């Protein structure tokens, strides 16, 4: 066994790929010329070029490359990382001096909707985008049950983390809605796995940060897709009221289909922005005009109810009944009705706007934390308006989640409470704003330090650590199982080196 833990920042290797790797008989192709895009990611914080990029045309291409690297043994510096849309934040999809696998090149299997065991599902490639999975499913009047807010990500990428959005409180994360997968392990073996067949590998890969295998196929659960969404936003002047209402809604038998919160700190003209929107309109324009948001820290509850046009009256009655139970500021109810597709793909609209003004491909020093319910108010009191004094550099989101909807056999790590929150600080640092990146990174450090000093047992989502003690603390009692699974499925630590958990030893 030649497995060791990486505790220092990885350096770039300039080693060219061995001629034996270039000589492999592949259906796709390897290239050493178009590597620049694979040397960065959405976070735009680390730039580590590989020595080669694999564009697989079949699963056998991925298997052949990994088998070759495995046979080279521990003395070889080569590692392998799967890359979808490169939406990682700290170089997790990079392989310095190694081989990056461009998963979007893998088009097999073709998407296929079927009813396995009497329940609808869809077979998709691990490199397929969720937006395309949605479009194909909708042709059959169906859709996956759980989402991320942004759909232009690959299936394999989100399943390697968890996949969380405002539906997770009722349907669980995306990793709770997978029926089976095809995996290429760190030995190059192609394994079909499910809850019943090769179950340990199945659960290891889900939320496994790419450490145990590359997801080349997944079978995703589907449900009937609604046609329309009633989409609402309301405001709160104190965090505790927002949290109480979110927890009331996630525990109710009949509730909204989507629940999310966000924080607005020193953001003037908030209601003016909503008033001018072509979508959101105030429920009562006269009352809304009387509410002054300037200079205040506000908390927004974003909720949605899915429906079909023939169910509009019933849906409206259910919505009114739910709203009556909440303690938001009555004059701040804004609402709209959009198609189901428009609602799910809403972030892409913002992406296109940001791209058009050069503000998409900038550093994104994001921080995502899972906070237990019993400490969420302490966290809010110490962070919002204090450590974080402005939200103009990016949204601050809060998703309530239920532990019972997560499977503890997966590799994903969550707080040990039934209700917890994903708090996402989604900062951007454009080059035009000098010092903004350093400021955002210092802010993240202060938030983490606050949690440590106050004894808040949070967990990072999309975790980023560099030291053994940090990774052990992250996994807690699950570390031994995580390390054991690594020894079984990727004993030479070939896969996903950019996570900086395990290091391929150079004897």
From TrEMBL:
Reported cofactor(s): FAD
EC code: 1.5.99.12
Keyword Flavoprotein annotated: yes
Record's keyword terms, sorted: FAD, Flavoprotein, Oxidoreductase
UniProt cross-references to Pfam families, sorted A to Z: Cytokin-bind, FAD_binding_4
A biological process term (GO) from this entry: cytokinin metabolic process
Coiled-coil intervals, chain numbering: none
Class of enzymatic activity (EC top level): oxidoreductase
GO molecular function: cytokinin dehydrogenase activity; FAD binding
Residue span, FAD-binding PCMH-type domain: 46-225
Family, as annotated: Belongs to the oxygen-dependent FAD-linked oxidoreductase family.
Protein's recorded name: cytokinin dehydrogenase
Organism field: Canna indica
